Amino acid sequence: MKITVDFEECLKDSPRFRATIEEVEGDVCELESKLDKLVKLCIGMIDAGKAYNAANKQFVNGIRELAQQSTKDEVIESSLTKFAESLQEMINYHTILFDQAQRSIKTQLQTFVKDDIRKFKEAKKQFDKVSEEKEAALIKNAQAPRNKQHEVEEATNILTATRKCFRHIVLDYVLQINVLQSKRRSEILKSMLSFMYAHLTFFHQGYDLFSELQPLMKQLGGQLDQLVVDAAKEKRDMEQKHSTIQQKSVKAALQDFSNDDTKLEYNVDADNGIAMEGYLFKRASNAFKTWNRRWFSIQNNQLVYQKKFKDNPTVVVEDLRLCTVKHCEDIERRFCFEVVSPTKSCMMQADSEKLRQAWIKAVQNSIATAFRNKGDDGEKLDRKSSTSTGSLDSGGEPKERSLKGESALQKVLAIPGNTCCCDCGQPDPRWASINLGITLCIQCSGIHRSLGVHFSKVRSLTLDTWEPELLKLMCELGNGVINQIYEARREELGARKPQPGDPRHEVEAYIKAKYVDRRFVRRPSDEELRNKVVSLSKQEKRLSSSSEHLPPRPPPPTPKLRPGSNVSGQSVKSADSGIQNSADGSREMLATTPSNNSLADGDVAESPPMPMPATLPPPSPCKEMVFYEPKEYSPGLQLYWASCARSLPDMAEALAHGAEVNWVNTDEDKRTPLIMAVQGGSLVTCEFLLQNAANVNQQDAQGRGPLHHATMLGHTGQVCLFLKRGANQNAADIDEKTPLTIAVEAANADIVTLLRLAKMNEEMREAEGPYSQSGDETYQDIFQDFTQMASNDPDKLNRYQQYDPQRP
C-alpha cells in the first residue's frame, strides 16, 4: 500500500496528520523487520548453497578419480571425464547464481535498510523532539499571566521560534517519508528482478550445457545395449573355458602328481633373457636353517630369486661359470640339490624328482653356455631390477611388509596441508622430516639436513622404506598442526613466508628462524601453561579409566615351592633354568612360545601359559597415575602429561617451547615422558619421543626403564619397538629384576619370545665377530611380524594382560 503525506496537512499539525504519521511509522517498522528477515534467509540460502557446492565438488572429484583409475578402458575414462567436466560447469553456474543472490538480495536490500530507513529514523527523532518543544511552548504561552508583560513577551517569542523550527522539521520529515515510500518499490522490485534474471540465466546455461551433452549420452545408451550382449557372450565363453580346465584338472588328479609338473624347458635364447624360471624352496643360512619358497630364475648367466613380482631380484650366484651343481641325498628333505660356488653354497628343493632333474640340467647347461660365451662379458642384470646383490649368508631377501614408494607417499599426502611443502608451499613434496612430522620439497629438505639431526631428520617419501609406526607418526601430525605451533606469531611479527622459487638464502634464513631460533613460536603465559597441564592430566585420567588401562590388581602372596614340586601335573622350573645363554638353549625355549608364522597368519589362539617360577616374587604393580600440584609448571611437565595422554600436537608444542625430551619428574619417582608414553599405551607416542632423541634406557627411581614398564604392562608392541631402538634388556631394577624375569613371571609368551630372540641374536653377533651381519633372517621376520601387528592389528597382541597370578 502506497501511503503519501500531504505537505499542506503537515503544517496544520492536525489529528489527521498525526494519525497518518503514526500509520507511516508502523508501516516502516514492519518493512524493516520483513527486509531484515529476508536478508537473513538469503544469507542462509547462500551458505547452504556453498555447502552444496563443496559436497558436489567432492563428488565430481570422485568421478575424476574413478576415471583416472579406469585408464585401461577408454570408453569409461572419456565418458566419466566428460561427465565430470559438465558437472563442474554446473557447479560454476551455481556459484555465479549464489554470487548474484548475494549482490541483488543481500547487499542491495541491506544498503536500503542501512541508508534510507536510517535517514527516516533520524528524521523521526528530530520530529518527535521538536513536537515536544512546541507542545511545551504552547503550554508556557497559555500559562503566561496578563499583568506580567515581560513573561507574555518571552512566552510569545519562544512559541514563535518553536513554531518556525517545527514547520521546518516537519516538512523535512514528510519529505523523507514520501521519498522512502517512493524508493521502497523500486529497490525491492529491482532486487528481486535481478535475482530472477540470475535464475533465468542459470537454467538457460544448464539447458545449453546438457543439450550439447545429449548426443554423447544417447551414443552411450546405444553402446550399453551392445555391452550387455558382449558381457553375456564373454560370460558363456569363460564358463566353457572353466569347464574345460576343470575336466583336465580332474584327469590330472587321477594320475601321479609327478606327471603333472609344470613343463620347464631350458631356453638360452629366450627373448626376455630368462633361460628358466619356477618356484623352489631355499634353505636360509641362519642358525634356524629355515626353508622359504621363492621364485627362482636363470637369466644372463646368473641365478636369482624373488619373493614377490615387484621385489628386486636377489642374486644368488653372480657368475655360473664359477659354480657347480649336485644332488643332495644326505638331508631329510626330498628332491634337494645344491649350487656351490667358491665362496658360498645354496641348498634348494624342488617339488618333484622330475623338477629337480630339470633344474640341475638347466644349471649345467647355463654353466656350459657361460663358458662358450666367455669371450663375451654378457650383460649383467639391469640395475633397475637388481639394485641389491644379497649373499646367502646375510639372508638378503627384501622385506615386503614395510611401506615404500607411492604407498607411503599417498598416505602421508592424504593428511590436510601435506600436499604442499610446509615451509615454502611448493606443491607435490617428496621429502619429510620424521621427527617434526612434516612434508618438504627437495630444496627445503636440503636446508633441513644442514640443520643437523637434533633439529630435523629428513627422509624420502618415495625412495626410503617406512616402518608402520613411523608412518602413523607422520599421519598424526602434519604441516597444519606443526605450522600452528612454529608459525603462531609469524603474521604478528610481519615475517614473510617464502614462496616457491624464492632464493635459497632467503628460504634458509626463514627455516633457521622458524626451527632453530623458534622466533615465531608463541610462548604461553604461566596461567595458560598451568591450564594446559591440568587439562592433559585430566585427559589422561579419562583414558586410564577405559577397559584397556585398568590399574593392575595387587597380587596376593605367592607360596614358595621347592624346585622339584608338582603343581597341577606340571613341573615348576626355576627362572634360572629358563634363561640360557647358548643359542641352542634359546632355540629350545622358543618351542614353548608362538611361532612367528602363526602370528603373521593372524592366528590369535592363545598358547599355553608358561609355568610360574617359584623362586622369583611377582613384579610389583605399576603405580596408578595421580596428578599432584607441582612446585612449578614448565614445558617439560606439559610434555610429561601429554605423553601419557597420547596427544602428539601437545607434545610437539611442548618441545617447541623448549621442553627437554628426557625431562625427569622428581615428584613422580623420576619418571620421564617416555615412561609416561608407555603408561599411556600408545606406540606412536613412544616413536615420536624416540625420534626426538629420547633416551630409551633412562631409568626411574625404581631402576626401571621404558622396557621394564612396557613388559610389566604387557605392551608387546612397545617392547618390540624398544628392542629395535637398542633398549638394554639386561638392565635390572632395584629388585634385581630384568624385563625377561618379569615377562616369565607374568607368563607373557609374546614378550618372552621377543626378549629371548633379541638376546640370542645379540649373542650370535658377538660370536661371529665385529664384521657379522646385523641379524639373521628369522629374527628380522619375527620382529617385522610383531611390528606389523602392533601398528595394524593391535588386538592380536592383547592376549596377555598385566600380571595376575590368578589368571588361568
UniProtKB/TrEMBL annotation:
Subcellular location field: Cell membrane; Endosome membrane
Gene encoding the protein: LOC114434168
Compositionally biased spans, kind Pro residues: 608-617
GO CC term, one of those recorded: plasma membrane
InterPro entries noted in UniProt: ACAP1/2/3-like, AH/BAR_dom_sf, Ankyrin_rpt, Ankyrin_rpt-contain_sf, ARFGAP/RecO, ArfGAP_dom, ArfGAP_dom_sf, BAR_dom
Name under which the protein is recorded: Arf-GAP with coiled-coil, ANK repeat and PH domain-containing protein
Subcellular location, principal: membrane
Domain of life assignment: Eukaryota
Function: GTPase-activating protein for the ADP ribosylation factor family.
Keyword Membrane attributed: yes
Domain notes per entry: The BAR domain mediates homodimerization, it can neither bind membrane nor impart curvature, but instead requires the neighboring PH domain to achieve these functions. PH domain binds phospholipids including phosphatidic acid, phosphatidylinositol 3-phosphate, phosphatidylinositol 3,5-bisphosphate (PIP2) and phosphatidylinositol 3,4,5-trisphosphate (PIP3). May mediate protein binding to PIP2 or PIP3 containing membranes.
Residues in PH domain copies: 273-368
Family matches, as Pfam families: Ank_2 (PF12796), ArfGap (PF01412), BAR_3 (PF16746), PH (PF00169)
Organism of derivation: Parambassis ranga (Indian glassy fish)
Residue stretches of each ANK repeat: 669-701, 702-734
